[in-house]
Amino acid sequence: MSTIELSNVSRWYGNVVAINDITMTIGPGVTGLLGPNGAGKSTLLHLAAGFLAPSRGKLTVAGAASWHNPGIYRVVGLVPERDSVYSFLTGEAFVRATAQLHKLPDPEAATRRAIGIVEMADAQDRRISTYSKGMRQRIKVAAALVHDPPILLLDEPFNGMDPRQRLHMMDLLHRLGEQGRTILFSSHILEEVERLSGTIQVIVAGRLAASGDFRAIRRLMTSRPHVFLVRTSDDRRLGASLIGRPAVTGVELTGRGLQVRAADYGAFSRELAVLARDQGIRLRELLPADESLESVFTYLVET
Amino acid sequence: MFGVQGRVVAGITLRATIGRKRALLFALAPLVLVLVTVALKLAHPERASWPVDILGVFGLTVVLPLTALIIGTSVLGAEIDDGSIVHLLATPVSRTVVIGVKYAVACVLTMIFAAIPILVAGLIATGGATRLAVGVFVGALAGSVMYNAVFVMISAVTTRAIAWGLLYALIWEGVLGNLVAGARLLSVGQYSLGIANSIARDPSLNAALGLSTAVVAGVLVTAATLVIAVSRLASFSLKGEPA
To answer: Min CA distance, A178 vs chain B (Å)?
Structure first.
């Protein structure tokens, strides 16, 4: 009932494809939508939230199409990325207004409950314009939760938060997921998704690059070929012996040092030090050359 | 009207519109109108030609459309511009209610900030509830209702509502309306003048349309623009992240 289903969904703007033929089912629990900036995460969330029409394919939320269907907001809560709230309202007034827009039978009680969940009772009578980024995010979550929806969509909920606020929000989402709600959030930061979600969907360049249990994806990510830059007292000699190791698939002498491509990250890092010591070569520097998240994503797309 | 949802939408709309710096603009224009009228009255207490100019030309064709433009594009456009409309639209509230309430708020505000000052100016200029004073007031009330429908529609259709609204008011109504007879038939300003003139009966108002034409066309334009506004809001889309 509280699932989000996409079948062959694409969305394009003119010639630019934002979402390319994605099929997925998102059920209860916390699901992280991971991908670099511009990958189409927001587009996918906007499609699910009924704020964008799919160009092709079918998307249903709790069994109903979300586009042109304001009825879905009875079961969906949305926390948009943009930090635009009615900042002239107090936190409490904003959440209560949302409760009234939902025509809840007891808006006051629902407001108290939602503000309690995000622990904002102390600040609820202040104007939102005086709130910090993290507090704004929490009051937005309270408004999205005021009607107790089984599905909650959050677009980059951790953006701009300090580490403490981040932990607090993670804890909150975790609890909401444990209650059996379907929580879908987007992030471009690997660690956030890793800490929070059992299931992740990796989106790269509009495509679903990987999907499933986080541990499996983590393994996929660490077992990819790694490129290192090594500077030593004798690059050429070390390079010659490195190429003889099975963990190494390529060596190149460059002006800045030795560029080594390793198929097995773990074995390479163990063997390098031993090899250098045995030959009396001094290691000066060891730098991972491609540790950016983008390269991880690129690798996932290519496999 | 429209129950608890309507009250919430109206309250938020009112605060968002009045609370902006732009509110100074629509508070200022009627003040200027009344002050100029008082000054003219003191300078030329007996001349009979200026009241028509100040009420008809300045009041009905400058103050009224500009006030309606600022208010009509703010009630919906402000929230679309800053993105806060999402919080309103992510609830099951009907899009017809959203447009209906925001439009009603815009009409009432425009009547307060343009139509009533025009009446005050008319009373001062003509020395009482003359046909001219009542005529321009009724024309301004009708204009408030028609202009706001057009401007609310424009802000539902484009994010450059002020620019398009100005283009409509200045170029279409101001220039083309004076040069091309056909443009007058699709000009809210001419409908207001026609309605005003049906009471004032003053040839200096330069009303091109008769009462029945003005009323029928005005009702059609108002209804059509509001229907477009509702359907555009129902298709409100969020842009994805920049690719």
So the answer is: 24
B209: nearest Cα among B148, B142, B153, B151: B142
Rounded Cα–Cα distance for residues A198 and A205 (Å): 23
Q: Which residues of A touch B6 (CB under 8 A)?
A: none
**Shortest distance, CA A68 to any CA of chain B (angstroms):** 6
Are B106 and B151 spatial neighbours (Cβ–Cβ below 8 Å)? yes
Distance CA B185, CA A90 (A): 47
Q: Residues with Cβ < 8 Å from B53, sequence gap 6 or more?
A: B204
Average pLDDT, chain A: 90
Is the pLDDT reported for residue B1 higher than 60?
A: no
Report the C-alpha gap between A293 and A193 in whole angstroms: 13
In this complex, the residue of A37, A51, A89 whose CB is nearest that of residue B236 is: A51
Cβ atoms of A2 and A149 within 8 Å: the answer is: no
B165-200: pLDDT as tens digits: 999 998 999 888 778 888 888 999 999 999 999 999
Contact in structure between A53 and A28 (CB atoms under 8 Å):
no
Angle at alpha carbon of residue A36, lines to A32 and A38, rounded to 5°: 110
DSSP letter at A119? T
Length of chain B: 243
pTM attached to this predicted model: 0.86
Amino acid identity, position A193: V
Q: Which residues contact A80 (CB under 8 A, 6 or more apart)?
A: A140, A155, B83, B86, B87, B90, B238
Closest CA to A46 of B175, B239, B235, B201: B239
pLDDT, tens digit (0-9, with 9 covering 90-100), for A152-181: 999 999 988 888 888 889 999 999 999 999
Spatial neighbors of A60 by CB under 8 A, at least 6 apart, are A4, A5, A66
User: Which among A41, A80, A102 has CB closest to B92?
Assistant: A102
- Give pLDDT, residue A131: 95
**For residue A233, what is the DSSP state?**
S
Structure tokens at A84: 């635009």
